[in-house]
Amino acid sequence: MNQSKQLVRLIEIAIMTGAAVILDIISGMFLRMPQGGSISIMMIPIFLISFRWGVKAGLTSGLLTGLVQIAIGNLFAQHPVQLLLDYLVAFAVIGISGLFASVVYKAAVSKEKGKLIASVIIAVFIGSFLRYAAHVISGAVFFGSFAPKDTPVWIYSLSYNATYMVPSFIICAVVLCLLFITAPRLLQTEKA
């Protein structure tokens, strides 16, 4: 990869990281769960960078998003390991969706709407599910005391985190599908 293209990738990672943090702050103003988490579209910029540049760029943008949230204090902190799981790991794993970057790009360029929609939904599901898994583990280990008396900790964590992760997945999948159907050039990293 030439230096110009590397510079563009780094600039886009920085911009998408900033956009993710801003979107998370805005969505957190309207609905914030009592022990952290919110229905949020902050994953969209991380998915977008993952689809444009692949897994490494997605992991980097997600990790930076978590670091920035910790740095600005936009967090719900209980323990250092919980911070690692809920912020660094949870946001970084969204970048795994970049494994589908070439499939999504090819489907968008060839105007195969069905394949594009299926690929985006699967990729967004995998990234969202991995984030959800990190939050569930953190919730069961560090927030188990919030579980109702007769509810097992894992069931509580699974259901609590699903209340905001399922809607977040659906919103992100719909927005990204519509975005790539109407503007497939967003997936191009080369000058057309």
Automatic annotation (TrEMBL):
<dbReference type="InterPro" id="IPR012651">
    <property type="entry name" value="Thia_Transptr_ThiT"/>
</dbReference>
<feature type="transmembrane region" description="Helical">
    <location>
        <begin position="62"/>
        <end position="81"/>
    </location>
</feature>
<feature type="transmembrane region" description="Helical">
    <location>
        <begin position="87"/>
        <end position="105"/>
    </location>
</feature>
<keyword id="KW-0472">Membrane</keyword>
<protein>
    <submittedName>
        <fullName>Thiamin permease</fullName>
    </submittedName>
</protein>
<feature type="transmembrane region" description="Helical">
    <location>
        <begin position="7"/>
        <end position="31"/>
    </location>
</feature>
<keyword id="KW-1133">Transmembrane helix</keyword>
<dbReference type="Pfam" id="PF09515">
    <property type="entry name" value="Thia_YuaJ"/>
</dbReference>
<feature type="transmembrane region" description="Helical">
    <location>
        <begin position="117"/>
        <end position="144"/>
    </location>
</feature>
<feature type="transmembrane region" description="Helical">
    <location>
        <begin position="164"/>
        <end position="187"/>
    </location>
</feature>
<feature type="transmembrane region" description="Helical">
    <location>
        <begin position="37"/>
        <end position="55"/>
    </location>
</feature>
<keyword id="KW-0812">Transmembrane</keyword>
